[in-house]
Amino acid sequence: MTLETIDTLVVGGGQAGIAMSEHLGRAGIPHLVLERARIAERWRSERWDSLVANGPAWHDRFPGLDFPGGDGEAFIPKEKVADYFVQYAEQIGAPLRCGVEVTSVRRLEGRRGFRVETSDGPIEARNVVAATGPFQRPVMPDVIAARDSLHQIHSNAYRNPGQLPEGAVLVVGAGSSGVQIADELSRAGRKVYLSVGPHDRPPRRYRGRDFVWWLGVLGKWDLAAQEPGREHVTIAVSGARGGETVDFRRLAAQGITLLGRTLSEAGGTLRFADDVALQVRRGDENYLALLDEADAYVARNGLDLPEEPEARVFGPEPDCLTNPVTALDLDEEGIASVIWATGYAVDYGWLEVDTFDEKGVPRHQRGVSEEPGIYFLGLPWQSRRGSSFIWGVWHDARHVADQIAIQASYAAYDDAARRRAPAVAQAG
Q: Kindly report the CA angle at 218 between 54 and 72, in degrees rounded to 5?
């Protein structure tokens, strides 16, 4: 059997892989995209049923295609987001194979390139792009001991309120996923506890503009790196019900009990940090700081955008902030489910090359790894704050494709020089 070879192999057929294919195609670089399931599979099968994109359609898209429907302010349901990437792959003619899993990548001995083992047979590739995105391995802290009476899942396994056993629910994590899931469960009539950690809390809209616009004109999407110590600060924003500002006081008024960070469990009693008021206040400070910057931008540029003083008015402090709960007995409170909205870790166990630190995190510069021929795409903060967003990954893909093309030119020069060398020797 003839061994299949390709210049560049892209692993992952989600937003990162499709963007990578577009730019490799434009550069004339032969490539193949492998996806272990369906295009944009995580949007379909690893998100809850009612999820919509957290950014409006005019912003959270690739430059070459609008979302169908014509409403740029809409927040697109997850299935239609996945359909969008299928349509985009067809539009650009992406050479994509679904249902093929990559199991290992190893450098070839004594020559350029890599041997890639897949469920469909081996492939040799000069370059490999890991485009598997930032949501690879769900993180569930080992805090609450397993017990038959408690249903524990990660947010990627949550689908809808009817999936959970009867009883109260504890949601751990107050980023976009945790807040939206807690809100949905509360609206469905469940008693909900929400454990709140460090977060940013931008306004959904302010002075007639979505927060994604404000982050753009204020240069915040292009920040090159996180501030030290803010690695675990998530963002609380929602596209639900046409988009709304996350307001923890409103959630409390709705019946959700806000708690501090989840610390430990012993004998069925959960312990929480006495910091819920602090976490909410810091989120408020982040919110108000963005309003201040937006107001300054409007004044400096003479924009005719309506003032919105009511955006600075907060509701009354709920009891769970003024008298924080620091311990809960699971049985007494009737808590039957815990949903861990605690993020993800990378998992590159299949990529057997020397470009990872002791924690398994890639060592790279804007997606170009320390292992020649290995590239990454879709990583959080790969080149900027917006790197793991739909539009951001498209721009990062262009840079990675440029770097692959540059290395191809160096390799072509080396190959030509090697071919010339014998002729020069014979002439001599």
A: 40
